[in-house]
Write a structure and sequence with these properties.
36% strand; 104 residues; Alpha-Beta Plaits; alpha+beta; 5-stranded antiparallel beta sheet
Length: 104
């Protein structure tokens, strides 16, 4: 399994706008993509707004190609997200899952 990690930040005024876009539009569309296994949105309040980390889980790099296209290192940031974010990374990082331990 591969985790795709991306970072962006929003001003306090646009925090909820970005979060709603991610949770109501982007994340619900991902399960339709072959090889997608889940998504997590993390948020951290900062002095100037909110920082977000988006983690998406995939079966492998072939599945990520289906989502991101040929340049799998490039971030996929929709226009609505771009409008809500103060800044965001134009790149992503991929990590192989070495261990997964989830407790209830």
């Amino acid at each position: 399994m591969i985790v795709r990690i991306w970072r962006g930040s929003a001003t306090a005024e646009n925090t909820e706008r970005y979060e709603r876009h991610a949770l109501d539009t982007v994340f619900p569309a991902l399960p339709a993509l072959p090889g997608h296994r889940g998504a997590i949105l993390l948020r951290r309040e900062t002095g100037s707004g909110t920082e977000f980390l988006a983690l998406t889980l995939w079966d492998g790099m072939d599945a990520i190609h289906g989502f991101a296209g040929d340049d799998t290192e490039a971030a996929v940031v929709e226009p609505e997200a771009r409008a809500a974010l103060a800044e965001f990374d134009g790149f992503v990082c991929h990590f192989s899952v070495a261990s997964w331990n989830v407790s209830s």
